[in-house]
Specification:
- With about 220 residues, this protein is α+β, with helices and mostly antiparallel strands.
- It is globular.
- Helix 3 (about 85-100) packs antiparallel against helix 4.
- The protein has helices at about 25-35, 70-75, 85-100, 110-120, 160-175, 190-195, 200-210, and strands spanning about 15-20, 40, 50, 55-60, 80-85, 125-130, 135-145, 150, 155, 180-185, 195-200.
- The two termini are about 30 Å apart.
Length: about 220
């Protein structure tokens, strides 16, 4: 049964943990993301966990920047970027690579993979793929889309700068739409290198509300 409600987000603890339990049905995920909440499984030994951290990591497009070395790489790269060409391969690569790097542990569980594949089929999850000159998938990312709100959930790379190519290509396309920021949830070193920063939760929720009322980026909508 889909989740019918969540506690107020200001009840989240200092780590952003808001609630435990529930399921990953499409309706549950949409309810969560519409309120700025996302699932982040802690362990197989614990119930499903839902988070709404304060502060929140984003890349505001007015602060977006690409360093000289990465810009030079992108200028001469033979990589090709596509959108929604192979969502399943992207999320499964994210799962396998994160599992390998974290000694068998990852928040991208089989249940998460299945749930976001269904969310993709429902038109609210997208993927970015990066291909080499042999048409091999070497990097990518996936995320959620609701109106002009876009998140970046996870990314992977198998070749130099492939994940950075994915996120730069995504943002440069989004800058031509009504989307004004990318929700990254946290600020990792890669996010920080591209101009990412933290904002207060209430500011994020205000921006989320506004973004949901704007037109969705056409190129990210699956099956269109």
């Amino acid at each position: 049964m889909a989740v019918v409600n969540f506690p107020p987000v200001d009840l989240a603890d200092e780590h952003g943990l808001l609630a435990l339990g529930g399921d990953l049905e499409v309706e549950s995920l949409l309810l969560a993301y519409n309120r700025g909440i996302f699932p982040w499984p802690i362990s197989d030994q614990y119930p499903l966990a839902w988070f709404c951290p304060n502060p929140r990591g984003i890349i505001d497009f007015s602060e977006f920047s690409v360093g000289k070395s990465l810009r030079k790489f992108l200028r001469h790269s033979s990589y090709k970027t596509t959108f929604n060409r192979d969502f399943s391969s992207v999320i499964k690569n994210c799962q396998s690579i994160h599992t390998l790097r974290n000694q068998g542990q990852t928040w991208i569980t089989d249940e998460i993979v299945s749930a976001y594949e269904k969310l993709h089929q429902a038109g609210h999850a997208y993927s970015v793929e990066v291909w080499n000159h042999q048409d091999q998938l070497v990097g990518g990312l996936y995320g959620v889309i609701i109106g002009a709100y876009v998140s970046g959930e996870s990314m992977f790379y198998k070749a130099p700068n492939a994940s950075k190519t994915a996120i730069v290509s995504l943002i440069e396309r989004l800058q031509k739409t009504e989307t004004t920021f990318l929700d990254t949830q946290m600020v990792t070193p890669v996010v920080a290198s591209l101009g990412g920063s933290e904002i207060q939760r209430q500011e994020f929720l205000n921006r989320l509300k506004q973004a949901k009322q704007c037109k969705a980026p056409h190129f990210l909508i699956p099956n269109e």
